[in-house]
Amino acid sequence: MEILRQGKGAPPGRIVARSRVPVSLIAASGYLGRMMTLPPALSRWFAAKGWTLHPHQQEMLARAADPATLLIAPTGGGKTLAGFLPTLAELGETPPAGLHTLYVSPLKALTADIRRNLGTPIDGAGLKIRVEDRTGDTSYTQRRRQRADPPHILLTTPESLALLLSYEDAPRIFQGLQRVVIDEIHALAESKRGDQLVLQIARLQSLNPGLRRIGLSATVENPAALARFLAPRTTILAADPGPDPDISMLETDEAPPWSGGGGRYAIPAILNQIARHRTTLIFHNTRAQAELFFHDLWLANTEDLPIGIHHGSLSREQRERVEQAMTAGALRAVVCTGSLDLGIDWGDVDLVIQVGAPRNVKRLVQRIGRANHRYNAPSKALLVPANRFEVVECQAALDAVRAHALDGEPRGPGPRDVLCQHILATACAGPFDADALYAEVTTAGPYAHLSRADFDACLDFVATGGYALKAYDRWQRLKKTGGKWHLRDPRAATLIRQNLGTIIDIETLKVRLRNHGTPLGEVEESFAATLTPGDTFLIGGQIVRYEGLREMTVEVSRSPGRDPKVAVFNGTKFATSTLLADRILDIFQRDSWPDLPAHTSWWLAKQREVSRLPDPHSLLLESFPHDGREHLVIYGFAGRNAQQTLGLLVTKQMEQQGLGPLGFVATDYATLIWGLDPVTDPAPLFDLATLRNGLDTWLAGNAVMKRTFRSTAIIAGLIERSHQGRRKTGRQATFSTDILYDTLRRYDPDHLLLQITREEALRGLIDFSRIEAMLARIQGRIDLRRLSRVTPLAAPLFFEPGRIPVHGEGRDRLASAQAQALMEAAGLA
Amino acid sequence: MPQARRWGIQHPMHHALFFHGETLHLMPSGALFWPARKLLTVSDLHLGKSERLARRGGTLLPPYETQATLEKLDRDLEATGAETVICLGDSFDDLAAFDRIEDSARLWLARLMAGRDWTWITGNHDPGPIEIGGTHRAEVHLAPFTFRHIAKPQETAEISGHYHPKARLAGQSKPCFLADRNRLILPAYGVYTGGLRSHDATLTALMDRDALAILTGPRALAIPMPR
Question: Which of A13, A432, A446, B185 is the most interior residue, by most CB within 10 Å?
């Protein structure tokens, strides 16, 4: 933690209150006089090191009594220490026993790092303060001891906190808790982990009414919203944001390809940059792309620069080795993914390279901040568009970063599946009163507007399953005795605790080297299912050969020197944000593009000549024949998920109009549909009511819904998550949640979990709100251009992977033909 | 199949299998129909599964699977006009399951059994007879076939269940029949049942190299058994 810097040389700090918010804002000065004082030993130690506090750190001390504070400070600004200063001041040199401060971070790695870094001043000053971390990696004995004798400062994650709060002795463990510090609060707020966390904090506040909250963040697009998320009354403290980053697009000799991702064309230029910097982080959007890139980078690395790879699919041992090498300064570059978006400070990083369009400005800013963790030194970053379209997106992102524009979707209300889990966890800790719990839950920001009826529905689901047919009267999970709800069978608590948490892993299988047993990492189960022995794929930067599946482990052998046949496993797909999409459309409206590389401005000019460029005020459609099929391109700029939904809904309409759509493919910008007949009357296809109607009927049986249902069912506690180690094999394996979904839909269509699933899918993977926003933007102005052939802007879409066939009768015909061919090939027909 | 519709031809949705001199219909639902004997066979209904899970573990799965399974069975009996029914075992998820299924389901089952020659073969989940009527047997010999719950490796002309076989075609995994010259294994008919992939060693050891997998779904489709 590069928390304190020498005061000399640094420009005078400013406290900037930047937001227009209905919460109490602080003045720039006036509190310093009444500030809490640090223990003299600590002050002496700071002085001996020649360190002084930053203004925002002093302000945190001054505001120590505030019930809640949100500190927005740049990376490297000593924000974590700022969060702990009030704690150190309150604890003093010889504090009494008992838990004083709880620190929650989204990453396990961060808690360990903070423990080490906080230990430096505490040990240096000889303070008798105990700091311990508690995560899934903490040993059983350590965890037991922590429950019996908690440290002064406990560092943990929302999941470990949920577990701790579910114990019967939670009130004793948390007795006397004074403060909770939430690090990288914006990252937690982006997911259900944040909803879970604020419910837990509401619980802690009930146990300790005097509890004070601190949220820490570097990148916040809407401070007021985040402040409300943290607590009902929150002070926002914004530190000097520091100098603007030094960012640009990487110049390469070779133009980026027309389509695809990975940015491998830029490898020579990237190697050159690595050689010219101390340490470079190379971010990719997906693990698969990181693997492919790393492989090729390694082949081109003739100077043998030490370069590592780091992503969430690699085994923990592998990741730790890279982290250690990085900390020791032994690596010149690390190819990585979101696994390094947040986290431990590597002070030596002096360049960040983002490969592929950033999709979202906030994440880009976060990544840029990974370079140069030094206060008041600009971060240096380069963007590498992976294809021609991304050149424009990268330009839009550069403009946005320079304009300090951040994106982010507004938070929806607190999800009810998380509430169901919270109720279950509360029951594990002991009997509870429904009225009191409802009152407590509604103090949490995301649940402030939760109705009593919705709360009761969640309670009913947890207690009885919430089925229209009360078949389980005998087997309720919760029972009410003497006005209080409690577990029917206290032994169920163990099982419930195992299922706490809101992170739903995609089912993965471990990959091991045959005969060595060395774990290499994990692949998604759906990817493993497509492998046949002899197939080669990339993992951990090496090519391996698939040998077989054994006891839920993918066995592979090394296969050097062969081109990987199968090279992809799915990663998370982020949709391009509205902010970026709007900025791209704005760029299209310019007369010329001197900022863009020549190859891209030429391409855009060509499109303008042949057809036209999309604009913000209408929906451009292009229709043309190609390769014996009719094609329709919808330039909706609504992000990948919404463009995909649009593809499904529009092809459905086309099917009804008898146009014979055969398939489609979607990107963040456009949907390409191919079929038998051309579209001539597009207006009915984009009628909001029709689309919504189609959505309702189509949605129900859709795979996205089933995937969403699975997460919801696990979080709400309907089914257990399958733990890697104890997953059953064979016939009695858990049946698929798809079947549960179908059954519920048929017999209990208004079931709580189906309601939640619909809400989630519309917000998330289906992203219908962005289709609605797009339709609102165009106001019925649809411009259909009939052209004789493929246009420059449409051409790259033909190389896009992830083509989706249109389901219909044709599907059965296809399967029959395939079965027939298999039988004939086997000589059986 | 627009072509077929135009000519008024109804393509059979089942797969017809010629097995030891008899024609058997492998139905898309996972049931087996033997037209010559008007006999319908189903395996591994696992009725009362959600109830058993609730009783044992506190997991409250949607309690509709008994209803869903019976609806399916009702439709198949109606469509085939079967007069004889053999349930190949694991019909109830455990012995207690029958006692605890809802009265409506019990009455429904009684209605399906009425007027039919109905045999319950003992499975490994529901050992021993239960209070439901019908005939209870360990196995049934009905020339040329033997019906039993778990296949015996040396037997021939055998029809069994137990393994819940599944296979994958065109990216989708579905419950399937497995058939070779000696035996026919039925998929699990119950709605909440997991499956064992056909390339599991247990099944590849049991089935001949040229075995077929007949997938359930909108229509029964035969493919060489994936191994």
Answer: B185
**Can you give the three-state secondary structure of A367-423, one letter per residue?**
HHCCCCCCCCCCCEEEEECCCHHHHHHHHHHHHHHHCCCCCCCCCCCCCHHHHHHHH
CB A394 within 8 A of CB A260: no
pLDDT in tens, A314-352: 777 888 888 888 888 899 999 998 878 776 666 588 999
Q: Choosing among A458, A464, A475, A709, which should be mutated to test the B contact, i.e. which has the most B CBs within 10 A? A: A475
- CA closest to A532 among chain B residues: B227
Q: Does the beta-carbon distance from B65 to A718 stay under 8 Å? A: no
- CA–CA gap between residue A758 and residue A754 (Å, rounded): 6
- The owner of tokens 């808790």 is A177
Pick one of 3.90.550.10, 3.40.50.300, 3.20.20.140, 3.40.50.1220 as the CATH number of A246-402: 3.40.50.300
Q: How confident is the model at residue A724 (pLDDT cuts 50, 70, 90)?
A: very low
> Could you tell me which residues come within 8 angstroms of residue B114 by beta carbon, excluding any fewer than 6 positions away?
none
pLDDT over 50 at B115, yes or no: yes
Instruction: Please provide residue A791's backbone torsions phi and psi, each rounded to the nearest 5 degrees.
Output: -95, 160
SS3 of B146, please? Answer: strand
B64·A744 Cβ contact <8 A:
yes
Helix (H, G, I), strand (E, B) or coil at A246: strand
Please name every residue paired with B42 in a beta bridge, in sequence order, or none if there are none.
B87
Are the beta carbons of B59 and B102 closer than 8 angstroms? no
Place of tokens 């100077």: A303
The class of domain A32-238 in CATH terms is alpha beta
Given this chain, do its domains A32-238 and A246-402 carry the same CATH topology?
yes
pLDDT of residue A728: 39
Residue with token string 């839920």: A552
How far is the alpha carbon of A818 from chain B, nearest alpha carbon, in Å?
Answer: 8
CB within 8 Å of A679: residues ≥ 6 apart: A621, A623, A630, A632, A654, A659, A685, A784
DSSP state of A234: -
Cα distance from A418 to chain B (closest Cα, Å)?
A: 17
Closest CA to A752 of A492, A495, A419: A419
CATH code for the part of the protein at B13-224: 3.60.21
Contact assessment for residue B176 and residue B203, using Cβ atoms and an 8 Å cutoff:
no
